[in-house]
Specification:
There is one protein chain. The chain has about 350 residues and is of the alpha/beta class. It has a single domain, classed as TIM Barrel. It is built from 17 helices and eleven strands. The strands form three sheets. Strands 1-4-5-8-9-10-11 form a seven-stranded parallel β-sheet. A two-stranded antiparallel ribbon has the order 2-3. A two-stranded antiparallel sheet has the order 6-7. The longest helix has 25 residues. The protein is globular.
């Protein structure tokens, strides 16, 4: 496709993920296309609801690019939802006002798992691929495009609980009482996620991230067996070079800082960190095996400008000199943040980080 050949004008993000020299630390924000932006809220209202927004390629492209018009971000991330795969498996995803995602069909038994199909991403999730192609074309090489998926464990929590959960009662019962059923579910999900991410890469995604939002609710041994194992399986099956360029993979387990050494050995190029782990400590633990992404507390964006800049400076100093750091929030940006605050944050990252890269570039 001709649009895929558009020369990338800003590859700082991809270079940092691969540990290559950069002039400044790249930055993007999880959930950067979201409800804190009035223009996003207007487009979502135009779409009618969240799922309709995800499934309209032009509107999904529009909201993906909206934050790039306000802020000097170094990457765009596909506007979609982590629960597209369970929806394509026939579970009937819907959103309850004030309660988040819900499924019409819940997975609880061996037969439920056996009946689940492994979707064909090119056809069953073609609306996602259409959005990826449209966004890549519209970006025209401005910044790289990130594709993503939920991890098998995280997807399974929603499928077994029927939606969001505070205690994960049903899936943890399955994990301890009938682990073979859960392993069968996770394996189907790993196959589905691998196909899904590879199809995103073929459609134009230039890096991919696996969101393991709920991995941190597990004990160490259970995390390795029921979450990390399946992410490792996915990473080993991903397309790692496309259009003559490496396709970096980011693995992000929220509340997973205690397992960084294990995650660093799982084959990804970069690890995402939430704000509960000091990034300097993380770097000392994993060395140059992987790049690190993160990890400012999103709540800092409620602070005055000077305090935002101070926190950016603290995290940059903690990481230290050299490449291998992609600055991000430790989780998604909050919907109540003033849209002026991210500009302070993004500009501070670029301005304050330059000195940490002078040796590599001088």
């Amino acid at each position: 496709m001709a649009d895929k050949m558009a020369e990338l004008k800003n590859d700082r993000f991809l270079r940092a993920l691969l540990g290559e020299p950069v002039d400044a630390t790249p930055v993007w924000m999880m959930r950067q296309a979201g409800r804190y932006l009035p223009e996003y809220r207007a487009t979502r209202a135009q779409a009618g609801d969240f799922l309709s927004l995800c499934k309209n390629r032009e509107l999904a492209c529009e909201v993906t690019i909206q934050p790039l018009e306000r802020y000097e971000l170094d990457a765009a991330i596909l506007f979609s939802d982590i629960l597209t795969i369970p929806d394509a498996m026939g579970l009937g995803l819907y959103f309850e006002v004030g309660e988040g995602p819900r499924f019409k069909k819940i997975i609880r038994t061996e037969q439920d798992v056996a009946d689940l199909p492994v979707p064909d991403s090119a056809s069953d999730l073609d609306y996602v691929m259409n959005a990826v192609k449209t966004i890549r074309s519209e970006l025209n090489g401005r910044v790289p495009l990130i594709g993503f998926s939920g991890s098998p464990w995280t997807l399974a929590t929603y499928m077994v609980e029927g939606g969001s959960s505070k205690d994960f009662r049903h899936i943890k019962k399955m994990m301890y009482a009938t682990p073979e059923i859960l392993h069968e579910l996770l394996n189907k999900l790993a196959l589905s996620v691998t196909d899904y991410l590879n199809e995103q890469i073929r459609s134009g995604a230039q890096a991919v991230q696996i969101f393991d939002t709920w991995g941190g609710v597990l004990s160490g041994p259970m995390y390795r067996e029921f979450s990390l194992k399946y992410m490792q399986q996915i990473v080993s099956g991903l397309i790692r070079e496309h259009d003559g360029r490496k396709v970096p993979v980011i693995m992000f387990t929220k509340n997973g800082g205690q397992w960084l050494e294990h995650i660093a050995d799982a084959g990804a190029d970069a690890l995402g960190l939430d704000w509960t782990t000091d990034i300097g400590n993380a770097r000392s633990r994993v060395g140059d095996r992987v790049a690190l992404q993160g990890n400012m507390d999103p709540s800092v964006l409620y602070a005055p400008e000077a305090r935002i800049r101070e926190e950016v400076g603290n995290i940059l100093a903690s990481y230290g000199s050299g490449s291998g750091h992609v600055f991000n929030l430790g989780h998604g940006i909050h919907q109540f943040v003033d849209p002026a605050a991210p500009k302070v944050f993004v500009d501070a990252v670029h301005e304050l980080s330059a000195k940490y890269h002078e040796a590599q570039n001088g």
